[in-house]
Amino acid sequence: MDQLMAMRGFARIVEAGNFTRAADSLDMPNATLSKLVQELEMHLGIRLLQRTTRRVTVTAEGRDYYEKTTRILRDLEDIDSSFNVAHNQPQGQLRIDIGGSAARDVLIPALADFVARYPGIRIDLGVSDRSVDLISDNVDCVIRGGPLENSSLIARHIGYAKLITCATPGYLKSFGIPAYPAELKNGHQLVSYLSPQNGRAFPFRFEHHGEKTEIKVDHHIGVNESNAHLAAGLAGLGLIQTFSYSAGAAIREGALVEVLQQWRPAAYPFHVVYPQNRHLTQRLRVFIDWLLSWFPQKVGGSD
User: Fold this and answer.
1) Count of CB atoms within 10 A of residue 30's CB?
2) Which of the listed residues 37, 63, 85 is the one where a domain comes to its end?
3) What is the CATH number of the domain that holds 237?
4) Whether residue 106 sits in one domain with residue 61
5) Cα(277)–Cα(270) distance, rounded to whole angstroms?
6) Which of 25, 97, 122, 228 has its CA 20 to 30 A from that of 44?
7) Is there a single domain that holds both residue 148 and residue 101?
8) Last residue of a domain, one of 85, 112, 130
9) Which range of residues forms the domain containing residue 32?
């Protein structure tokens, strides 16, 4: 039995919640992982997992074994990292999850610089506006905008982005240019961004001299993915409220026109988030440091 591999496999099952996800993350067949855990249980003489056709649960002994062995696994990774750092070569796989427009307009255009600095790091980039479970999905970190809701995660603030309201020249010619937020209730067509988690429309938010306003009206069209949301605005389907980094090129080219500029809402915070019970590897450290060095200028830059 490869005890170290068995320990790692068992830890991934605990974190992922089932054999299939754990096996996928370790790039091994389900049967191989199952055999490793069975051999580990025979070696220890205890039952680590309770298996049914529907789910896998961790026994009390399994939970205790997980807590003790994950410390060993982290120490081993520390040892490996210390030698890699000595040679200035962080190694391994880094799994990152990020929203659609932030991936397209912010992160991906800059990734060539990171890859050139750290050629030993392999990146798996998950792109979706839907939240992921960092533990069960085996994700090292996520980059997200908005207020933080999960206090069990560690978050590093990496910058602010501007929210702007805009539409095509053709739309504004047909429906008029609103002078105040309240005018959006009078005959304007709104393309709302829908929460990928619950399907609810985010209100259009505005702020002027400290006065905050939210416009909640029935939207003409709702979209739950940021790139498609921008596309709907570019198609002339109505007014959208989106990030300046996403709409900036279209505004400079005249495809979109910003309205209610004096009513821009407060800047939107962005964070890089990772689990507090997961070891902060050297590759994740250098990625976060790299993010902090340029992300604020990118998201908060040109209008």
Assistant:
1) 13
2) 85
3) 3.40.190.10
4) no
5) 22
6) 25
7) yes
8) 85
9) 3-85
Number of C-beta neighbours around residue 35 at 10 A: 14
Tens digit of pLDDT at every position of the chain (303 positions): 788 888 888 888 887 777 888 888 788 888 899 889 899 888 999 999 987 666 788 888 888 888 888 778 777 776 666 665 555 677 788 889 999 999 999 999 999 999 999 998 989 999 988 887 776 677 889 998 887 766 677 888 999 999 999 999 999 999 999 999 999 998 899 999 998 888 899 999 999 988 899 998 888 899 999 999 999 999 999 999 999 999 999 999 999 999 999 999 988 899 999 887 656 778 888 999 999 988 877 776 444
162 close to 106: Cβ distance less than 8 angstroms: no
State whether residue 39 is helix, strand or coil: helix
Q: What angle do CA 194, 245, 265 make, to 5 degrees?
A: 65
CA dist., res. 266 & res. 303, Å (int):
14
| DSSP structure string for 95-155 | EEEE-HHHIIIIIHHHHHHHHHH-TTEEEEEEE-SS---TTTTT-SEEEEES----TTEEE
114 and 47 within one domain: no
Domain count for the chain: 3
